[in-house]
Design brief:
Elements (H helix, E strand, L loop, with lengths): L2 E3 L8 H16 L7 E4 L1 H10 L3 H9 L6 H17 L4 H18 L6 E9 L13 E5 L2 H13 L4 H9 L7 E9 L5 E6 L9 E8 L3 H4 L6 E6 L5 E5 L5 E5 L5 E5 L2 H4 L6 H18 L3 E8 L2 E9 L8 H10 L3 E4 L1 E4 L2 E9 L13 E4 L7 H6 L2 E4 L7 H9 L3 E3 L4 H4 L5 E5 L4 E4 L12 H6 L9 E6 L5 H6 L5 E4 L4 H5 L3 H6 L3 H19 L4 E4 L29 H7 L1 H16 L5 E5 L5 H13 L9 E6 L2 H5 L1 H7 L3 E4 L1 H9 L17 H17 L2 E4 L7 H10 L3 E4 L4 H24 L1
Parallel strand pairs: 16-17, 17-18, 18-19, 22-23, 22-29, 23-24, 24-25, 25-26, 26-27, 27-28, 28-29
Antiparallel strand pairs: 1-2, 2-5, 3-4, 3-5, 6-7, 6-12, 7-8, 8-9, 10-11, 12-13, 14-21, 15-19, 16-20, 20-21
Helix pairs in contact: 4-6, 5-6, 19-21, 20-21, 21-22, 27-28
This protein binds phosphoenolpyruvate (PEP) and magnesium ion (MG).
Length: 761
């Protein structure tokens, strides 16, 4: 059948109705109150494609696509979508859709019922394949003509560039992926929220219900702190509850749009759910859990005092251990002996080893806690052996912080005096999130340790248009970064590659051993570009402040600068010592010739367009053609670069990546490595935000890719702003990729929602 009511669909009909449609049908069939609706089945899409004669045309376009050529992919995707949007829907199909919509209006008792229109994709032979989030959803649609238009838009969204790429990458045949469309009444709830049918973190058999005023969007999107209720499922007794100060809610406007508004004063601190409503919800939760035979994570809404269920899916994150709470209380009873900044999350316990000089590194045995003034690149092998790291100096973007995040080792920086307070061989436990060091060594649950599994968990298959990439500082960490599902590497730092050599790059040049330097660079870059191929990897040319390489062989010749952060680093130094830059470009050229076409070059600490011209010239001298062979871009790390970004654009850049670690320190005059001023270091200072905004805006106007690879890109609430500003990609620490991806997805959905509403005006 081409159009099916929810009543005639069950969970086994994923092939007809897609996952979303099958779920709503299953709930409806089970007698659960679901807002009514119908499904334009996958078969209808198929019929549309064949009857209109556009199928072959579209398949021809798809057959010829090189999905790794982003521009070509985007162009083809646009063309296919236009073909679909322009194709008239055959009358026999449109008549059925109009009939189903009219029947829905009649059922609800209004002339033109407001509906949500959601895509629900499915694959032939593999109905369980997940295409969640790749296709469009449109809210607040009404009128049969509009419904038809938006159904077609959902069909077209099967050919978004990212969806095409995803299918190619995962070997799904385009011709065997179909799309069903769910059309469902939108309910204007007075209160709404979520319900877990067991406690999702302990597995305890109590219903956990969260609720707030207005539409469910407020709770689901996390815009509001909801009331929380725990209800005993045997007695329906409310065991515990907390009433939150609910500041915002979403309302439906007369024109169908939804809008975030302030909760009226008298409702802000008022309890949302009465005892009777909690009992009704709990009973409903028990029914749904029984129906599915497993604990469920559901969404609910009260509309006209009637309960509706909007969604139900299994709880996937049940934590079987309850050791966590015990551990928390253990921690509360311990004495904090040192405080600093939480630089890399996770808990670790071990024996203190204080490193005052580099030749003491052998003291560190597997599982020890390294305590030092500040780490340097040549300490990395010992850092890898450590369970945790504590430093006297540094802010959250210092060397110790960046590296320990990448290694997945808990770290506390900027303590001021850890090397004095802590005693050699003392046992301590550190909390790298809160920035605390406790006396004694205590048990830590697996969940609180930071390890590969934390990263793996974050590799949820969410698809975002804004690319979410990973930063890589150590080539060995590339696999771990790739496992997050990152869309590429937005920053590959060079500094650590020099470590494997233990020799200052200058020394290679002075000793006429340039070939060796090129080889070391090639081997290291290869480890990353190979793992990520064909996803892009932006290699950042050497940017080592003079204090960082002093302990390498040849490093004794490094000048002693009063303020290395403001000194001889980045592109300004590379242009003074072009032989190193040449060696880097030679390494990239060789890899390019071996087929690694996914490398881009990024110039650090750019300050004047002249530097860009010179850097490109050096690349050309070694036979590497910027923009032709490889993408070539700059890091925006100085206010100067942000304020005259147009001039860099005029000369030619493929991308600009915001290095907010440096941009913040140079805008605010705050040394990022100095713990005394760490409290003044603020990436969200209005001045920094203005520079960021300007850069993104100017890049967007010129069609240049904008990105961020500074630590600010690992902070969800900043990322939200960046997505709103229209940034093209965000590159985060490996440990933050999962969270950032969620934030990006949520922010994008919000924008789509806003746009859909505007469209309706
Ligand atoms: C930055 O400055 O934001 C950046 C990413 O570079 P680094 O931290 O290596 O200076
Ligand atoms: Mg920088």
């Amino acid at each position: 059948m081409y159009v099916e009511k929810f009543e005639s669909i069950s969970k086994d009909d994923v092939g007809i109705a897609g996952g979303k449609g099958a779920n709503l049908g299953e709930l409806t069939q089970a007698g659960i109150p679901v807002p009514p609706g119908f499904i334009v089945t996958a078969e209808t899409y198929n019929k549309f494609m064949n009857d209109t004669g556009i199928f072959d045309n579209i398949m021809d376009i798809l057959n010829g696509i090189d999905i790794n050529n982003t521009k070509e992919l985007q162009k083809s995707a646009k063309k296919i979508k236009e073909i679909i949007i322009d194709a008239p829907i055959p009358e026999d199909i449109s008549a059925l859709i109009i009939e189903a919509y009219n029947a829905l209006c009649q059922k609800v008792g209004v002339e033109d019922v407001l509906v949500a229109i959601r895509s629900s994709a499915t694959a032939e032979d593999l109905p369980e394949a997940s295409f969640a989030g790749q296709q469009d959803t449109f809210l607040n649609i009404y009128g049969s003509e509009s419904v038809i238009d938006y159904v077609r838009k959902c069909w077209a969204s099967l050919f978004e560039a990212r969806a095409i790429f995803y299918r190619e990458e995962n070997n799904f045949e385009h011709s065997k992926v179909y799309i069903a469309v769910v059309v469902q009444e939108m309910v204007e709830s007075e209160k709404a929220g979520v319900m877990f049918t067991v406690n999702p973190s302990t597995g305890e058999d109590v219903a956990l219900i969260e609720g707030s005023w207005g539409l469910g969007e407020a709770v689901v999107s996390g815009s509001v702190t909801p009331d929380t209720y725990y209800v005993d499922k045997k007695s329906n007794e409310v065991l515990n509850f907390s009433i939150a100060d609910k500041k915002v809610m979403f309302e439906k406007l007369p024109n169908g749009e939804t809008k975030q508004v302030d909760v009226p004063e008298e409702l802000r601190n008022k309890r949302v759910l009465s005892e009777a409503e909690l009992v009704e919800l709990t009973e409903m939760g028990k029914r749904i859990q029984k129906h599915y035979g497993a604990p469920q994570d559901t969404e609910w809404a009260f509309y006209d005092n009637t309960l509706f269920m909007l969604q139900s899916r299994p709880i996937t994150t049940l934590d079987e251990s309850s050791s966590n709470e015990k551990e928390e209380s253990d921690i509360e009873n311990r004495e904090v002996i040192v405080r600093g900044l939480g630089a890399s999350p996770g808990m670790a316990a071990g024996t203190v080893k204080i490193i005052k000089k580099i030749d003491e590194l052998d003291k560190i045995k597997n599982g020890d806690i390294m305590v030092t003034t500040m780490t340097t690149p040549d300490m990395v092998p010992a850092m890898k052996r450590s369970n945790g790291i504590i430093t006297d100096e540094g802010g959250i973007t210092c060397h110790a912080a960046i590296i320990s995040r990448e290694l997945g080792i808990p770290c506390v920086v900027g303590t001021g005096n850890a090397t004095e307070i802590l005693k050699e061989n003392n046992k301590v436990t550190i909390d790298g999130k809160k920035g605390l060091v406790f006396e004694g060594e205590f048990q830590i649950s697996e969940e609180n340790k930071q390890d590969e599994s934390v990263v793996a968990q974050s590799a949820a298959p969410i698809i975002t248009v804004t690319e979410v990439k990973a930063n890589v500082s150590m080539p060995e960490a590339a696999k771990k970064a790739f496992a997050t599902g990152a869309d590429g590497v937005g920053l590959l730092r060079t500094e650590h590659m020099m470590l494997t050599a233990g020799v200052h790059p200058n020394k290679f040049i002075q000793d006429n051993r340039e070939d060796e330097l090129v080889k070391i660079l090639m081997e290291n870059i290869l480890k990353v570009v190979d793992v990520f191929y064909p996803k892009p990897v932006w290699y950042r040319t050497l940017d080592a402040p003079t204090d960082e390489f002093q302990t390498l062989e040849g490093g004794e010749e490094e000048p002693h600068e009063h303020n290395p952060m403001l000194g001889w680093r980045g592109i300004r130094r590379e242009l003074d010592e072009p032989e190193i830059l040449k060696a880097e470009f030679k390494a990239i050229k060789k890899l390019y010739e071996q087929g690694y076409t996914n490398i881009g070059v990024m110039i650090p600490l750019s300050q004047s367009p002249d530097e860009l011209i010179k850097a490109k010239k050096i690349a050309e001298e070694v036979g590497l053609r910027p923009h032709k062979d490889i993408d070539f871009g700059i890091m925006v790390e100085t206010p100067a670069a942000a304020l005259i970004i147009e001039e860099f654009i005029d000369i030619g850049i493929d991308f600009a990546s915001l290095g907010t670690n440096d941009l913040t320190q140079y805008t605010l005059a705050v040394d990022r490595n100095n713990e005394l001023v760490a409290k003044n270091y603020n990436e969200e200072h209005p001045a920094v935000l203005k520079l960021i905004e300007r850069t993104i805006r100017k890049c967007n106007e010129a069609g240049v890719t904008s990105s961020i690879c500074g630590q600010a890109g690992s902070k969800p609430h900043i990322v939200e702003k960046l997505v709103e500003l229209g940034i093209n990609s965000v590159s985060a620490n490996t440990d933050a990729v999962g969270d950032v991806r969620h934030t990006v997805a949520r922010s994008e959905q919000k924008l789509i929602l806003d746009a859909a509403r505007k469209q309706k005006k």
